[in-house]
Amino acid sequence: MTVVETTELPAVLLQTESSGKIRPVLLEPDLPDQTFRTSRPDIVGPDVPDKPFPIKLSGPVQHGFGRGSKDLGCPTANLPDESLPPMIAAAQTGVYYGYAQVTPPEGPSSTLPVRDTCVLPMVMSFGWNPFYKNERMTVEIHLLHEFASDFYGYNMKSMVLGYIRPELQYTSREALIEDIEFDKKVALKSLARPGYEVYMTDPFFTAQQL
Ligand code: ADP
Ligand code: RBF
Ligand code: MG
Question: Signal sequence: where (predicted)?
């Protein structure tokens, strides 16, 4: 019996039978893709934030590489290096959830409507972005809200309340996008618990200056 592999998909073998007749044989289908993505829980962390949370971060929003919106369809407001120490001291690199607030600079220069300056749910990436092989650690926050405009230079306060997952290396941009979309759902569901919602009115956010 001769077996010839074709280059066509799905994978097919051509079997030459003793009669000389050729018949195609379908290969066993691949096992289901048991990736991290397909088996993720959509709610994570305890019902009330536990140590080391909450972790408080703040600083002016900086420019990054401009990849979040363009490459991933997910803009991330980057904090400066000076804002990293509370995360470095308390937590491992990874993806986190919590609340954040963009506060307009002093004076009449703010163009953001009031609804953009509320305390909002967020997902945060903290680490080396292995997919992009960054050489510097970053802390980047995506707020789950449609903003009227960009807010570079504005101050951002953030309260990190829980851990979602480690930073991963991906073989495709699509897989990273898929996981980020799921992270957003996880953040919203995980924050919709009374033990987390109370942090929206924490003095860290409501006080004028902290
Ligand atoms: P960069 O690499 O400069 O951070 P991004 O493509 O990640 O560029 O875009 C981030 C910028 O997009 C933020 O600094 C902010 O001004 C703006 N932005 C608009 N909507 C959002 C949002 N929902 N979350 C975070 N940033 C946002
Ligand atoms: N980058 C990675 O290399 N691996 C990740 O697992 C990863 N997860 C992310 C999860 C979220 C919710 C967000 C907002 C970003 C994530 N990133 C990750 C970071 C992404 O690479 C970064 O935002 C872009 O490089 C734009 O700066
Ligand atoms: Mg960014």
Answer: none
206 vs 154, more confident: 154
Fold of the domain built from segment(s) 30-201: Elongation Factor Tu (Ef-tu); domain 3 (2.40.30)
152 ligand 1 Cβ < 6 A: yes
Cα(177) to centroid(ligand 3), Å = 14
Q: How many CB atoms lie within 10 A of CB 59?
A: 18
If you count them, how many residues does the chain have? 210
Q: Give the residue, out of 69, 120, 132, 146, with the most ligand 1 atoms within 8 A of its beta carbon, to mutate for a pocket test.
A: 69
> What is d(CA 199, CA 194) in angstroms, rounded to the nearest whole number?
9
Cα angle 193, 189, 52 (rounded to 5 degrees) comes to: 65
**Torsion angles phi and psi, residue 203, rounded to 5:** -55, -25
Check pocket membership of 129 for ligand 1, CB cut-off 6 A. Answer: no
As a whole number, mean pLDDT of residues 159-170 equals 97
Higher pLDDT, 132 or 21: 132
The pLDDT of residue 5 is 42
Cis, bond preceding 194 (omega within 30 deg of 0): no
Helices and strands per DSSP (H, E), number in the chain: 5, 9
Residue 108 confidence (pLDDT): 61
User: Is the minimum distance from the CB of 64 to ligand 1 under 6 angstroms?
Assistant: yes
